[in-house]
Design goal:
Order of helices and strands: HEHEHHEHEHEHHEHEHEEHHHHEEHEEH
Oligomer: single chain
Shape: globular
Number of helices: 16
Radius of gyration: 25 Å
Number of domains: 3
CATH topology of the largest domain: Aspartate Aminotransferase, domain 2
Distance between the termini: 58 Å
Strand content: 5-15%
CATH class of the largest domain: Alpha Beta
Bound molecules: 4'-deoxy-4'-aminopyridoxal-5'-phosphate
Largest sheet: 7 strands, mixed
Number of strands: 13
């Protein structure tokens, strides 16, 4: 293995870690024996008797949207609460979190509401490692994990760990744009890499990247060679593309040749999606509820559906994988984790000590105990993920179905990319104009802006690709798309209606000669 410290920024290397209340670090005098039961008059940790919460009961559902079936307001998936054979009886759908517990691997409030170790409370931290060992095991041994307050925090800390002022990060030209601010924050420079927006694409344009790296000093004479590549490799935000394993091998090879780090941001990868299948829909747009249940086993999912992470290719400790509980559990938890070489995780820990002292103990306690006590650990968590993915794949297909049935689609005015994972569909507008042919590159954004007003007036909100660029000018020609996210809507009918409104708006815009 190469020396991983070469990747670490000077800022991160210069940080130290110590706590004023620790026992002295000097060598103890001869004959010193530690007392077996020391009494703490040192740390400012309030005794748990001061905590006003005595216990918490957490009530759970068996399936996403199950709560709606209780209120009689059905989402498609709600009609299958017992899917996957893992449903429990109604009255066993809660866990009790007490002030104190002796149950191994469960957290109680005396720990969850107390100051805790910065890397995370042991049971949950251990769980993240177990989970990664099962889903995306790195190809070397000296890796570890640290909890974060979500992927945003993980990404910000990854940038701090490796970027010195002036360092360059390669970024997919359309991206989760807050990342650009994390780079900026440490004085780094983001350089866009083209995305291939054709439907069978891997996202990142490999030829462009290879050529750029081979001719770096010609293309960017004033910038040093890249220190890192930031990629949302599965269900990319905003385009929805997923890189195949063969493609990842090629990118990893480039990373070795040109010695850069790969920051892999993967909030969506576990939500794998089958290809759209029209035969699931009856003529009234309805889907047989039996179709909605999860029909995958964990083994099938892990081996045949889940795309391997860059971690699994990593033999040189150059991959930093950022995960989050935001999309699989809930974003308000502000909980995620980062997996990388132990030396990288160590500097992230040192930064966490000055930044936020790690993730909320209460969030960790709830997630840990729900996963371990209620769902029974790793397989239970994977089963929940399978139910999430079944629900998302249903939603994705509904939205595509609605678009495919539209006149705008049938007339060739729009196209969509069927994502293999995640929650985003790229909705491309072709601006076909028989009189003028293809519109000029500098007309794309003004035309998209006019179209966006039309779409809003039809009662649907979408994100234009040009709002998520590294550099709008660089991406002009490829900016004729909107990101559609099928995560927020309440139910099937609204998803179908949203596709209808959107395509009606495009048709009307086209019929008015690409004018509002
Ligand atoms: N990365 C990507 C690609 C995202 O789409 C998001 C959330 N939209 C995040 C990171 C941030 O996630 P978190 O809520 O865990 O901070």
């Amino acid at each position: 293995m190469s020396d991983v410290t070469q990747f670490i920024s000077k800022r991160a290397q210069s940080r130290t870690s110590s706590h004023f209340a620790n026992v002295p670090s000097d060598k103890p005098p001869a004959g010193f024996k530690p007392h077996p039961k020391p009494l703490l008059l040192s740390y400012g940790t309030p005794n748990d008797g001061f905590f006003p919460i005595d216990s918490i009961d957490v009530n759970l559902v068996n399936f996403p949207f199950e709560h709606q079936s209780k209120g009689g307001h059905l989402n498609g998936s709600a009609s299958e609460p017992k899917a996957n054979g893992h449903a429990k009886e109604e009255n066993s759908n809660s866990i009790h979190i007490a002030r104190h517990t002796k149950t191994p691997n469960s957290l109680d409030l005396s720990r969850g509401l107390q100051y805790g170790p910065v890397p995370g409370l042991d049971p949950l931290l251990e769980f993240t490692k177990e989970f990664i060992a099962k889903t995306h095991k790195p190809a070397y041994d000296d890796w570890t994990s640290i909890l974060s307050t979500g992927a945003s925090d993980g990404l910000n800390k990854a940038c701090d760990a490796i970027l010195d002022p002036g360092d360059v990060v390669l970024v997919e030209e359309f991206t989760f744009s807050p990342f650009l601010r994390f780079v900026n924050n440490v004085g780094g420079v983001s350089v866009p890499i083209k995305i291939d927006l054709s439907s069978d694409s891997n996202g990142l344009d490999l030829d462009y990247l290879q050529n750029l790296l081979d001719n770096w000093s010609k293309e960017y004479p004033n910038l040093p060679k890249p220190k890192a590549l930031y990629t949302i490799s599965t269900g990319q935000n905003p385009t929805g593309f997923t890189q195949t394993i063969e493609f990842r091998r090629k990118i990893y090879k480039l990373a070795e040749e040109h010695n850069f780090v790969i920051i892999e941001d993967d909030p969506y990868g576990y939500l794998t999606l089958p290809k759209y299948d029209a035969s699931r829909f009856s003529s009234n747009n309805k889907v047989d509820p039996a179709e909605l249940k999860n029909n995958l086993t964990i083994e099938d999912y892990l081996f045949n559906h889940l795309t391997p992470s860059y971690l699994e290719l990593d033999t040189t400790g150059r991959v930093i994988r950022v995960e989050t509980f935001s999309k699989l559990f809930a974003p308000g938890l502000r909980l995620g984790f980062v997996i990388a070489h132990a030396k990288v995780i160590d500097v992230i820990k040192n930064y966490a000590e000055v930044a936020n002292r790690g993730a909320s103990g209460l969030a960790q306690t709830v997630v840990n105990n729900v996963i371990r006590e209620h769902w029974g650990g790793l397989d239970g968590w994977l089963n929940w993920i399978l139910k999430m993915r079944a629900t998302y794949s249903h939603r994705k297909d509904l939205l595509l179905h609605s678009i495919y049935q539209s006149d705008a689609f049938k007339k060739g005015l729009v196209d969509v990319i069927d994502p293999k994972a995640g929650m985003f569909v790229t909705f491309k507008v072709k601006f076909l104009d028989p009189a003028q042919g293809k519109i000029a590159a500098d007309e794309v954004i003004p035309t998209m802006k006019q179209l966006l007003w039309k779409i809003i007036s039809h009662g649907v909100l979408v994100v234009p690709g040009y709002n998520m660029t590294v550099d709008q000018k660089f991406s002009l020609e490829r900016s004729n798309f909107f990101r559609l996210c099928y995560a927020p809507l309440n139910n099937d009918d609204d998803i179908i209606e949203s596709g209808k409104r959107l395509t009606d708006a495009v048709l009307e815009f086209h019929d008015k000669g690409n004018k509002f």
